[in-house]
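Whiteboard transcription, Tuesday session. T.W. wrote the structure tokens on the left side:
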């Protein structure tokens, strides 16, 4: 029986060529799997037909936008996930979703191998292969670009020789990956880290320096999940799309950073994540209102570790699963409304309200009606500072 390979298929040059390349190298049949994570571009039916025209025995396409929003973006939001305190895990979040669909397709089509188009320099090779190892450890993994010398010039020559139905004449100066949660841009002149990004790098955001009216909105959360904008009930997908549109129009979410890749090198990346950045800012502020201090302090460390695990391709790891449980519990009371102003590239919280608020006006106010007994502070400070006082007296005695 002929072996089958499930290929993570994008519809572009490299993965289209990989269909025939893999067949020629291994003698296996190729099943192409394309997943819509909100990246836009070509229609899924067009992509499916291209895979078949390039020699795939079957092509599976899936609109996974709702799944991506609710099961991947929302957990990242509840974890305030920002790798190196800045990057909202745009590409890293979509990879476990794709891996899940690849593993499902491999089981359904009785495949013995899975293939991806990653290079040996990036994080994605790790994310794909670590995820597959967790979900379907019996599968072998093929990486033609990394392991079989399938360079771009060879891919173009192969496509022309075989008459494959793909445009090989256009080449963007950038390497771009995008989905519902944001857009990542690298390579080209951006590899010189002294060069500033120019306006044609951006597609999700308008120039924040252009004069325009500010946009004010209210985001509603239930247990850390965004459920409405300006009082209109929306699904997580619709909330993210709405924030991408409105925050993007104000230039919110542009990030230019030198990033520590998992494989050990530093890489210059330019990101756009208008919806993600606005939503994380809103969620963090609602946590400030509703989460007790010691829990909030501990959660900040958990959030950082959660983001590192996802960045490092360990979405399906036992530790990440355990942290999910903690983050869900910590979000139990993160419900309410956040008012936010979007303008000039910034998302600024200007109001917050919650039935689960821990903010007590009568304790916080300095005006008449203050019910805080300030006389208690003296004894509290004496007890709080006692260990430091005792240590200082000991040091003076011994010096």
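and on the right, the sequence the group agreed on:
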């Amino acid at each position: 029986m002929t072996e089958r390979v499930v290929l993570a298929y994008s519809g572009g040059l490299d993965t289209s060529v990989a269909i025939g390349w893999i067949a020629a190298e291994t003698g296996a049949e190729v099943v192409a799997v394309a997943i819509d994570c909100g990246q836009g571009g070509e229609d899924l039916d067009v992509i499916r037909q291209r895979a078949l025209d390039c020699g795939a025995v079957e092509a599976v396409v899936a609109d996974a936008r709702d799944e991506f929003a609710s099961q991947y973006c929302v957990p990242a939001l509840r974890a305030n996930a920002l790798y190196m305190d800045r990057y909202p895990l745009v590409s890293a979040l979509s990879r476990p979703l794709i891996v899940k669909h690849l593993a499902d397709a491999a089981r359904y089509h009785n495949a013995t191998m899975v293939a991806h188009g990653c290079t040996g320099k990036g994080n994605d090779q790790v994310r794909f292969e670590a995820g597959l190892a967790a979900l379907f450890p019996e599968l072998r993994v093929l990486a033609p670009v990394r392991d079989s010398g399938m360079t771009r010039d060879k891919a173009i020559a192969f496509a022309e020789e075989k008459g494959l139905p793909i445009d090989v004449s256009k080449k963007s100066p950038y390497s771009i990956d995008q989905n519902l949660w944001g857009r990542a841009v690298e390579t080209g002149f951006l590899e010189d880290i002294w060069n500033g990004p120019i306006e044609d790098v951006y597609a999700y955001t308008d120039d924040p320096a252009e004069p325009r009216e500010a946009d004010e909105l209210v985001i509603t959360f239930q247990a850390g999940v965004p459920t409405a904008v300006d009082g209109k009930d929306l699904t997580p997908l619709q909330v993210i799309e709405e924030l991408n549109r409105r925050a993007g129009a104000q230039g919110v979410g542009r990030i230019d950073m030198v990033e520590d890749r998992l494989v050990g090198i530093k890489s210059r990346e330019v990101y756009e994540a208008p919806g993600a950045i606005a939503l994380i800012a809103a969620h963090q502020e609602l946590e400030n209102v509703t989460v007790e201090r010691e829990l909030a302090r501990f959660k900040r460390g958990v959030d950082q570790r959660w983001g590192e695990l996802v960045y490092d391709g360990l979405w399906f790891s036992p530790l990440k699963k355990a942290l999910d449980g903690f983050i869900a519990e910590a979000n139990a009371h993160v419900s309410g409304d956040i008012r936010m102003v979007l303008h000039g590239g910034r998302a600024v919280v200007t109001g917050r309200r919650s039935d689960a608020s821990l903010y007590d006006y009568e304790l916080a106010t300095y005006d008449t009606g203050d019910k805080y007994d300030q006389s208690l502070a003296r004894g509290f400070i004496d007890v709080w500072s006692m260990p430091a006082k005792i240590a200082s007296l000991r040091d003076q005695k011994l010096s």
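Someone added at the bottom: The first strand starts at residue 4 and ends at 8.
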